[in-house]
Amino acid sequence: MAKQFAIMRGGKLKTGEMRGSIAHVSRSQNTPNADPDKRHLNYAVVGPAWDDARAIQAAVEQQTPAKYRKDAVRLLEFVVTASPGWFAENPEKAESYFEHAVAFYQREYGTENVVSAVVHRDETSPHMHLYVVPLDPETGKLNAKKLFGGRGDMSRRQTAFANHMQEFGVERGKRNPARQHTHVRDWAAGHADLDKREAALAARETAVAADVQKAANNEGN
Hints:
Layout: E1 6-13, H1 15-25, E2 43-46, H2 53-63, E3 75-82, H3 84-89, H4 94-109, E4 114-120, E5 127-132, H5 144-148, H6 151-165, H7 184-220
Antiparallel strand pairs: 1-3, 2-4, 3-5, 4-5
């Protein structure tokens, strides 16, 4: 049996990036790699309705201190998923998988700081976007540098996350110190490219099937 992996990526968002991310998550901007016919399958695990961009923004503002630097990191964004094969083999466990993942971040950063968690099922692979306000409990101020940390902190978090999710039969990917961490934006871009390639392949297969059927009809005539 092939190994299945717990997957998570993280990044830091300043004000402009945050608004763009919320627009993507809520589908208030065009998302070419998302299937409109499957949009009703998206849902929020915590926080406002998944498609209410204003409410998500308001949830962020409510947890943000009144005073912060204009260039401050406003949110930590994490994308959580698993190997595609895991979802294919365990469709009935997907909802519990994401709920259990949220519990990890609530423990890591504080329940009140996890202001939104949205599952997308309108793309090829189910995945969850999770927003954390980087509020330092010791100072009451935003401090993404401290709470997100560096490469070593992210590696530790990857391990802790995989351990938290192991009851679902997933494990951590192999550690590679030479490998650069994939930023959540780069992961999303690669994910979108994969969706486009799969859509192009499906379209090609449909066209070939149509040609075969047409040829068969002509022979019948």
